[in-house]
Amino acid sequence: MASLLEVDGLSASYGRMGLALDRVSLTVEAGSIVAILGANGAGKTTLIRAISGLLKLHGGAVASGRTLLDGQDVTRLSPDRIVRLGVAQAPEGRMVFKTLSVEDNLAVGAASLPRARRGERMDAIYHLFPRLAERRGQAAGLMSGGEQQMLAVGRALAAAPRLMLIDELSLGLAPLIVKAIYERLGEVVATFGTAILVVEQSARIALRYCDRAYVLEGGRVALSGAAGDLSSNERMRDLYLGAAAGH
Ligand SMILES: Nc1ncnc2c1ncn2[C@@H]1O[C@H](COP(=O)(O)OP(=O)(O)OP(=O)(O)O)[C@@H](O)[C@H]1O
Ligand SMILES: [Mg+2]
Fold this sequence. Notes:
Elements: E1 5-14, E2 19-28, E3 33-38, H1 44-52, E4 60-69, E5 72-73, H2 79-84, E6 87-90, H3 102-110, H4 115-128, H5 130-134, H6 145-157, E7 163-166, H7 175-192, E8 195-199, H8 203-209, E9 212-217, E10 220-226, H9 227-231, H10 234-240
Parallel strand pairs: 3-8, 3-9, 6-7, 7-8
Antiparallel strand pairs: 1-2, 1-4, 4-5, 9-10
Helix pairs in contact: 3-6
């Protein structure tokens, strides 16, 4: 059976700047949480953009390789088509619609669903994140960073995706909020069978909450494996789990 997501030898660049992704291959199975790790500029966001079809919008392009969703080649489909095939994204910087209410932000996420399914799906999100329910009438821009991240995740989930892409989930958030969000994501995976591909700055957090991780260095996959195996990998420990790595 095909994996939910298979990235196969993907290379990408922005204009003539050299390769931002260099033959990256990875797989995400249904119902799993997979982390992408790597230093600033390693290519993490570029990889997310390549999968979601948004690379072009940022002046980049896939040079070679493929992205398969359930075996279907989606490499050159429009972002819109990719969303319709069940891939939703919580982008870097959260990008909630600040002047819209929490409810309206979620409604934007649910807009790709048939009308009859939207209400039920929004209720499920409120059940998952009661804090969003309490603030449903509030403008998104007035919420804390952690709440805005919950909303960004909730908005992506409102589209009932098969695969959710999250860029920089924990950046700038207190450990307790990070823990709360990952625990909810674990429930989402268990309840809906959704798969999650998440960019994490903190290797410790990734290895605690994710099933597998891929480490990018200079646009290439330098290390990958099950979280348990990576935790004891020497290179991983030296470069990403040392005292300097934080968290
Ligand atoms: N829109 C763009 N135009 C030109 N170059 C870009 C663009 N976006 C990213 N790059 C370049 O591509 C490379 C990879 O960047 P990317 O944003 O994917 O890294 P990242 O791993 O997400 O880093 P960070 O942890 O800082 O978010 C970098 O060298 C970056 O300067
Ligand atoms: Mg990034």
